[in-house]
Amino acid sequence: MYKCSVKAQLVLDQVRARCQADSQTNNRWTGRSGNYMIIMGRENPDGKATGVVHKFQEDGTHKLAGSFKIMADGIITRFTGMSSADWRNFMGTAQKEYDAKYSNEAKPTEVPASEKSKIASEKSKIA
Questions:
Q1: Residue 69 belongs to what domain range?
Q2: How far apart are CA 51 and CA 56, in angstroms?
Q3: Which residues contact residue 113 at a Cβ distance below 8 angstroms, ignoring those fewer than 6 apart?
Q4: Would you say residue 93 lies in a domain?
Q5: What is the mean pLDDT of residues 23-45?
Q6: How many domains does the chain have?
């Protein structure tokens, strides 16, 4: 399995979901101007995910069309064959998943006003 940061992996999972929806594979999708395929590159020590994008030709072959780079923080900086609307959708969905799975922040609970007055009156009785 390709190793990258958690956020980059969540974005890649969104790309794979798109590929599954379009072609029932993990690396092929239909873009505005044709069919594309991603090929993962080398693993990067800084956690980013990179690779190349090939475009299928009319004769069934494919050739290099560009590349992609997903930074360790889950930001797509380039992805040939994907629209910027797709980028935003993938990054937003991945961020929501990250927040849901990995958020360690305890959310403060709101005390209803009626409870606040009860607490205040009990504190005044104690004092």
A1: 6-105
A2: 16
A3: none
A4: yes
A5: 93
A6: 1
